[in-house]
């Protein structure tokens, strides 16, 4: 079964609370992913960071600049 994201809540400190299709919940801290490259640097702006969305099929999250992250990575490798 494919991992899907059903819901997300943006929290303070560049964290996102994720709700997965298998009833797993996880809070991912994105600070380590925010850098100086053209895709992740905009995420350092808290207002921009809050613009994150879930793909219609639940197979990832993304920001307006097309930076995206798959649910498998978020669920299994981010601790």
Descriptive report:
With 79 residues, this protein is of the alpha+beta class. It has a single domain, classed as NE0471 N-terminal domain-like (2-Layer Sandwich). It has two helices and six strands. The strands form two sheets. Strands 1-2-3 form a three-stranded antiparallel beta sheet. Strands 4-5-6 form a three-stranded antiparallel beta sheet. The radius of gyration is 12 Å and the shape is globular.
Descriptive keywords:
three-stranded antiparallel sheet, 6 strands, 79 residues, NE0471 N-terminal domain-like, alpha+beta
SSE class: alpha+beta
Radius of gyration: 12 Å
Number of domains: 1
Specify the overall morphology.
globular
Q: For the terminal residues, how far apart are their CA atoms?
A: 22 Å
Quick one: biggest sheet?
A: 3 strands, antiparallel
Show unreliable segments. Answer: none
Question: How would you state the average pLDDT, rounded?
Answer: 93
| Total count of helical runs of at least 4 residues | 2
Query: What's the architecture, going by CATH?
Result: 2-Layer Sandwich
- Kindly estimate the percentage of residues that lie in beta strands according to DSSP: 25-35%
By CATH, the topology is NE0471 N-terminal domain-like
Following the backbone from N to C, one meets helices and strands in this order, namely EEEHEEEH
Helix coverage percent: 10-25%
| CATH classification, class level | Alpha Beta
- Spatial order of strands in the largest sheet: 1-2-3
According to CATH, the homologous superfamily is Uncharacterised protein PF10387, DUF2442
Task: Work out the number of β strands.
Answer: 6
